[in-house]
C-alpha cells in the first residue's frame, strides 16, 4: 500500500475510482516537460537575483556575496523618485480601475439582459486585443490635443492612462467571481427585508470581496509593470521604475539594476501570496 | 371536514386572482402560469404539488416577489402586494438550496431579517436564541454555515425564515436535498413546527407522498394550471382528473360509456360489457366515453359464490410484505391491479389463472 491513492475509501463508483488512481507522474514525458517549463520560467529570474548579491560590478562573473548594490540602489535618488512615481500612479490607477471594473461587472451580470451586452463585454476588453503600442500612440495624440486646448499638464495624464488600461485586468476576476455567485443569496436577503442598497452592502459586496481584491492586485501589478504607454505619456519628472531601469540599461547592466529588479520581483511575489491568503480566507 | 368547510371558517392568508406568468417573448414565450385562482387560508399547511415545470415554483416566486406576474393579482390578508418588491412583503422563503449567507455565522444568518426590520439588538438576540432552540441548534450559534451538515443547514434556513415571524412562510422543495431518513424526520418536524407557530406554510414539492403526509390542503398543478384543490383525502380518494389520479398513488383506469346518470352517480358500461356505478364528482362528461378510476386497495378478490365485477388472467403476483399486488389482464387488453392485504394463497392464485375481481362500488370515480 505504498501508493496513497489506492488507500482511499471506495466512495465513488468503481469506474470513477479507476480513473482517479491514474498518476500524473506516471505519464510519459511528464517530468521532463515539467522541468523544462520550470527552468525556462524561473532560471532567468534566479540568475538576476543571484547577481544582485554579487560583490563585483559584473553581472556574469561571480566573485562573492555582498549587499552593497542594494544599499546603493536605495540611496540612489533617481531610483527612489522613480519608485515613488510608480507607486503613486499604480495606486491611483488601481483605485479608479477597480471601481469602474466593479460597476461594469455588476452591470453586465446583475441586470436584465440588454441589447448589445456582448458588445459592452467586447468594448471593456478591447485594450487586451489592440497592440499596446497603438493604444500608446492613440493616447499620446489625444492627450496632446487636450493639453493644447486646456493648457493643463502634470502627472494626471499618466495616472488616467494607467487607470484606463488597468480596467480590463480588474474587470476579469470581478466578473468571474460574480458569475459564480448565484442570485439566490441576494434574493434571500431581499426576502428578509433588506432594501436594494443593504442587499448590495451586506451580501453582494462582501461576497464579491475576493474578486475585487484579486482585480485590484492585478491592476496594481499591471500598472507597476507598464513600459510602452508610460514611455509615451510620461513627462519630465514622471519617470517610473520600469522606465528608469530601461534608461539605466542603456548605460550597461549593473548589479544595481539587478537589485532594483529583485525588489520588484519580491513585491510582486508578496502581492500574489497576499492575494492567495485573502482569497483562501474569504472563500471559507 | 372537507376542503370547502375549512374555507368557510377561515380567512384567506394569500389570495391569487387570474394570475398568469409568461417567460420570454413572441415565438419563444413560455406560459409558466395560466390564470391561476387560489385561496390559501390562515394557519394552513398548503402544498403546491406537481411534476417539474408545472409552475409550482413560479407561483411561489410570484408570491415572494422574485418575479412579477404578466397578469393577475396577489393579495396578502386582503392587502394587494402584486407590485411590491420582495423586501416589502411580510413573507419569508426557505430556498431549495438554503441560500445561507456564507460570510455570516449561524446566529447572524438567523438574525438577519430582524436586523433589516430595525429591531433592537436585545430583541434580535432573544429571538435568535429562541429560534436556535426551536430547531435544536443552540450549540451551533457561532459556527459558519459551511461547517454544518445538510440537515443542519436546512434547519438554519428554516429558523432564519421563521425568525421575523412572517405572515406566510414559503418553502421551495426544502427537503429535496436530504436523504430519505432525514427527510422523513424533517417532514414531521416541519408539520409540528407549523402547528406550533401558527404561521401559514406554502410548501412546494413534487413528492406526492410528502404532500399527503404534511398538508392540510393540496393543489395539484400541471402545465401552469391548478387541476384540483383539496385535502389529502379529497385528492387521494376523490381525484377529479386523470392526471391527478395518476400522479398520486397507484390507480386503475378503465374506459367505458355512460349509460345513464342519477344525481351524482353514473352507470358506466365498461369495455368488457360489465356495468359499474361511479361517482361523477365534478366531472363534466356526463355522457359518452369516459374514464373511471379505482385504487388497487379498493379492488378485492372475488370469494367463492360471489359475482365478480371483472374477470381476468393473472399476469404477475408481487408480494411486498404488508400487501400483495395481483396484476390482472382483462379480456379487453386493459390491465388492473388488485392490492390484497397480506399474502395470497399461492396454490390458488398463480400467473395464468383466471380469477374474478370485485370493485368497491362507492369508490369508483369518473375522471375529467
UniProtKB/TrEMBL annotation, chain A:
Q: Topology relative to the membrane, per the entry?
A: Multi-pass membrane protein
Q: Give the Gene3D superfamilies listed for this entry.
A: MetI-like (1.10.3720.10)
Q: Which InterPro entries does the UniProt entry name for this protein? A: Bact_Polyamine_Transport, MetI-like, MetI-like_sf
List the keywords (alphabetical): Cell inner membrane, Cell membrane, Membrane, Transmembrane, Transmembrane helix, Transport
Subcellular location per the Swiss-Prot or TrEMBL entry: Cell inner membrane; Cell membrane
Q: Where is the ABC transmembrane type-1 domain?
A: 83-275
| Membrane-spanning parts | 26-53, 82-107, 128-146, 152-171, 199-221, 227-247, 259-278
Asked if the Swiss-Prot or TrEMBL record annotates the protein with the keyword Transmembrane helix, the reply is: yes
Tell me if Cell membrane is a UniProt keyword of this record: yes
Task: Fetch the Pfam families from UniProt.
Answer: BPD_transp_1
Q: What domain of life is recorded for the organism?
A: Bacteria
The UniProt entry's sequence similarity note says: Belongs to the binding-protein-dependent transport system permease family. CysTW subfamily.
Function recorded in the entry? Required for the activity of the bacterial periplasmic transport system of putrescine and spermidine.
> Mind telling me what this protein is named?
Spermidine/putrescine transport system permease protein PotC
Automatic annotation (TrEMBL), chain B:
The alphabetized UniProt keywords are: ATP-binding, Cell membrane, Membrane, Nucleotide-binding, Translocase, Transport
Database matches in InterPro entries: AAA+_ATPase, ABC_SmlMolc_Importer, ABC_transporter-like_ATP-bd, ABC_transporter-like_CS, Mo/tungstate-bd_C_term_dom, NA-bd_OB-fold, P-loop_NTPase, PotA-like
Molecular function (GO) terms for this protein are: ATP binding
User: Is Heme included in the keywords of this UniProt record?
Assistant: no
Q: In what residue span(s) does the ABC transporter domain sit?
A: 14-248
Q: What class of enzyme is it?
A: translocase
Q: Which reaction does it catalyse?
A: ATP + H2O + polyamine-[polyamine-binding protein]Side 1 = ADP + phosphate + polyamineSide 2 + [polyamine-binding protein]Side 1
SUPFAM superfamilies with a match to the protein in the record: MOP-like, P-loop containing nucleoside triphosphate hydrolases
In Pfam terms, one family for this protein is ABC_tran
Respond yes or no to whether keyword Nucleotide-binding is given for this record. Answer: yes
Quaternary structure? The complex is composed of two ATP-binding proteins (PotA), two transmembrane proteins (PotB and PotC) and a solute-binding protein (PotD).
The UniProt entry, under NCBIfam families, shows: potA
Q: What does this protein do?
A: Part of the ABC transporter complex PotABCD involved in spermidine/putrescine import. Responsible for energy coupling to the transport system.
Q: Which family does it belong to?
A: Belongs to the ABC transporter superfamily. Spermidine/putrescine importer (TC 3.A.1.11.1) family.
Q: What is this protein called?
A: Spermidine/putrescine import ATP-binding protein PotA
Q: Tell me what gene encodes this.
A: potA
Amino acid at each position: 500500500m505504498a501508493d496513497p491513492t489506492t488507500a482511499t475509501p471506495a466512495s465513488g463508483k468503481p469506474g470513477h475510482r479507476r480513473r482517479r488512481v491514474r498518476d500524473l507522474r506516471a505519464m510519459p514525458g511528464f517530468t521532463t516537460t515539467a522541468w523544462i517549463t520550470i527552468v525556462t520560467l524561473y532560471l532567468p529570474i534566479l540568475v538576476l537575483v543571484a547577481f544582485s548579491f554579487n560583490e563585483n560590478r559584473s553581472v556574469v562573473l561571480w566573485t562573492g556575496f555582498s549587499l552593497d548594490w542594494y544599499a546603493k540602489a536605495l540611496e540612489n535618488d533617481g531610483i527612489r523618485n522613480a519608485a515613488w512615481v510608480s507607486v503613486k500612479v499604480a495606486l491611483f490607477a488601481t483605485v479608479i480601475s477597480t471601481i469602474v471594473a466593479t460597476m461594469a461587472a455588476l452591470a453586465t451580470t446583475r441586470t436584465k439582459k440588454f441589447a448589445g451586452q456582448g458588445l459592452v463585454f467586447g468594448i471593456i476588453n478591447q485594450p487586451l486585443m489592440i497592440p499596446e503600442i497603438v493604444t500608446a500612440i492613440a493616447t499620446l495624440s489625444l492627450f496632446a490635443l487636450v493639453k493644447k486646448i486646456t493648457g493643463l499638464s502634470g502627472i494626471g495624464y499618466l495616472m488616467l492612462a494607467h487607470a484606463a488600461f488597468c480596467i480590463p485586468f480588474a474587470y476579469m476576476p470581478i466578473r468571474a467571481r460574480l458569475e459564480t455567485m448565484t442570485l439566490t443569496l441576494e434574493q434571500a436577503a431581499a426576502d428578509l427585508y433588506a432594501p436594494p442598497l443593504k442587499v448590495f452592502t451586506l451580501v453582494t459586496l462582501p461576497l464579491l470581496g475576493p474578486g475585487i481584491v484579486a482585480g485590484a492586485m492585478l491592476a496594481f501589478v499591471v500598472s507597476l509593470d507598464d513600459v510602452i504607454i508610460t514611455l509615451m505619456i510620461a513627462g519630465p519628472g514622471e519617470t517610473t521604475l520600469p522606465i528608469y531601469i530601461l534608461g539605466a540599461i542603456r548605460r550597461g547592466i549593473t548589479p544595481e539594476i539587478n537589485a532594483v529588479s529583485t525588489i520588484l520581483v519580491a513585491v510582486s511575489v508578496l502581492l500574489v501570496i497576499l492575494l492567495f491568503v485573502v482569497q483562501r480566507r474569504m472563500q471559507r | 371536514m372537507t376542503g370547502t368547510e375549512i374555507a368557510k371558517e377561515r380567512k384567506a392568508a394569500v389570495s391569487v386572482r387570474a394570475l398568469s406568468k409568461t417567460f420570454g417573448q413572441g415565438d419563444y414565450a413560455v406560459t409558466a402560469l395560466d390564470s391561476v385562482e387560489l385561496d390559501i387560508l390562515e394557519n394552513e399547511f398548503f402544498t403546491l404539488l406537481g411534476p417539474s415545470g408545472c409552475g409550482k415554483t413560479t407561483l411561489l416566486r410570484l408570491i415572494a416577489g422574485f418575479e412579477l406576474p404578466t397578469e393577475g393579482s396577489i393579495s396578502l390578508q386582503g392587502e394587494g402586494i402584486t407590485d411590491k418588491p420582495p423586501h416589502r412583503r411580510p413573507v419569508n422563503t426557505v430556498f431549495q438550496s438554503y441560500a445561507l449567507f456564507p460570510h455570516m455565522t449561524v446566529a447572524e444568518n438567523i438574525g438577519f431579517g430582524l436586523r433589516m426590520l430595525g429591531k433592537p439588538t436585545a430583541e434580535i438576540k432573544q429571538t435568535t436564541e429562541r429560534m436556535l432552540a426551536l430547531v435544536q441548534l443552540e450549540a451551533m450559534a457561532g459556527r459558519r454555515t459551511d461547517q454544518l451538515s445538510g440537515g443542519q443547514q436546512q434547519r438554519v434556513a428554516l429558523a432564519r425564515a421563521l425568525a421575523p415571524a412572517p405572515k406566510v412562510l414559503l418553502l421551495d422543495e426544502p427537503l429535496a436535498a436530504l436523504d430519505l431518513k432525514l427527510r422523513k424526520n424533517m417532514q414531521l418536524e416541519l408539520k409540528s413546527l407549523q402547528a406550533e407557530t401558527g404561521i401559514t406554510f406554502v410548501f412546494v414539492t413534487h413528492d406526492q407522498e410528502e404532500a399527503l403526509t404534511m398538508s392540510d390542503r393540496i393543489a395539484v398543478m400541471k402545465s401552469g394550471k391548478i387541476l384540483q384543490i383539496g385535502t389529502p383525502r379529497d385528492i387521494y380518494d376523490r381525484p377529479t382528473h386523470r392526471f391527478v389520479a395518476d400522479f398520486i398513488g397507484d390507480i386503475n383506469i378503465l374506459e367505458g360509456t355512460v349509460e345513464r346518470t342519477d344525481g351524482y352517480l353514473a352507470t358506466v358500461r365498461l369495455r368488457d360489457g360489465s356495468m359499474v356505478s361511479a361517482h361523477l364528482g365534478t366531472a363534466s362528461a356526463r355522457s359518452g366515453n369516459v374514464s373511471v378510476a379505482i385504487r388497487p386497495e379498493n379492488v378485492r378478490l372475488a370469494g367463492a359464490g360471489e359475482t365478480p365485477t371483472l374477470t381476468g388472467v393473472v399476469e404477475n403476483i408481487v408480494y411486498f410484505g404488508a400487501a400483495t399486488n395481483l396484476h390482472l389482464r382483462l379480456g379487453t387488453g386493459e390491465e388492473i391491479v388488485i392490492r390484497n392485504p397480506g399474502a395470497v394463497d399461492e396454490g390458488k392464485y398463480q400467473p395464468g389463472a383466471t380469477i374474478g375481481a370485485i370493485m368497491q362500488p362507492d369508490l369508483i370515480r369518473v375522471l375529467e
